[in-house]
Design a protein that fits this description.
Layout lengths: L3 H11 L4 H21 L10 E6 L3 H17 L2 E7 L3 H11 L2 E3 L2 H5 L6 E4 L6 H10 L3 E5 L6 H14 L3 E4 L6 H11 L6 E7 L29 H5 L13 H5 L11 H16 L6 E9 L12 E8 L3 E8 L8 E5 L2 E6 L10 E6 L1 E2 L2 E2 L3 H7 L4 E4 L5 H15 L7 H20 L3 E4 L4 E3 L6
Parallel strand pairs: 1-2, 1-4, 2-3, 4-5, 5-6, 7-10
Antiparallel strand pairs: 7-11, 8-9, 8-17, 9-10, 11-12, 12-13, 13-16, 14-15, 17-18
Amino acid sequence: MANDSLDRRDFLKTVSATGLALEAAKSALAAKSASTAKSAGRVLGANDRINVGVIGYGGRGEYVARAFDNVGKKNNSCQIVAVSDVYEKRKRKGEDRYKVKGYLDYRELLHQPELDAVIVATPDHWHGKIALDAMDNGKDVYLEKPMVHTNDEARQLVQTVKETKRVLQVGSQTTSADIWWKAKKAIADGMIGQMIMSQGSYHRNSTEGEWNYPIDKNASPEAKGEDYIDWNMWLGSQFKLAPKRAWDPDRFFRFRKFWDYSGGIATDLFYHVVAPLNICWDEPQFPTKVSASGGIYVFKDTREVPDTFHLLADYAKGHSLVLSSSMANDTHIPGLIRGHEGTIVMVDHGQFERMVPYITVKPQMRGQHPIGGDKYAEKFGTKEIQIPIDQKDPMVAHIENFLECMHTRAKPHLDVETGARAVVVINLAVQSYREGRTLYWDEKRWKAADKPVKA
């Protein structure tokens, strides 16, 4: 069942050109028609309240559900009507909080006809499949970052959004923060000239080591009642999402430490920088070349992902992306977008914050004269310019944007194509680190390459 919809989409491309192909094509078209009918979803009126289901009711899922619930209560726009989690305790917690039906198997939730949209807040390796299944069942999707676990899943999501016309918002709320839209306008207005480099960081210093979340000692696949966990379903090995393993509470409760389910720093933290940068650049872009370095320098526990990680990417339009992070030191690197004629200072003291009062545009000067020349000075002057930032909570703005797009069917702030361009550079960096080599992106094939790819 995992790949039924994908196989159906590719069926006519793979069957042989024989008499059998005609009958196979008829079957595929019939299945496609059924899928299209399913994927139509409920037609929402202007004042209809949107029914939302939550898939994955762990820490993040609980937080996002509460945020949706708060927005819904404020303007009567949405309500939580179902929850799903493979851990019985979390499922029951969601049921009790919203007085709704809960499911251990998310597919039962997706079959509910009154459901309009789902929040997907599972471990990363499940994001792609659940989002695809949801769209095939006529649901719009609020999909937590990093969107998907593999670049092929990103390709499939882009294709499926086009086919089903569903609304998919990637849940990196930073992309709805006003700071990025003001930076986008500043770049479009020519305030920094030709873009050269974007840089940022995401640093923390956790005494227990990042992602070492508490473990419920009584929880297991053998437990009864609220301690029961459907471990086989969580792994997803029957759908080829991760290798089959014996029960390991460290992997279940601390999944971000392991490559099978996460990309560590890159997918958990860097996505919050790469995704909004793709919004404020003149257009979302795939990288042409990516490399990464780092290591496990301090937290030498069971983790596979590094506690310190650096990403360097080049883009065809002639600029670079430089990101650095450590989970063992909390001093940040200033967030900047550098141009030939000016620099946008996103945050002076460190990582890309969301709630800052302004961004600063600093012109590049040679003596008393801007490098851009007299025309630049006439338009922008020769002094630093501070651009005020709206202080609206970006999480609220992101949810409201998603709900509005469900009514209008417009593209949300972090649509699937922008989300894909962000996740590709991150996944390439993870692959580069793990394989110890520089990688190049083949956009036509959606694959990593060993050498530069001709346009």
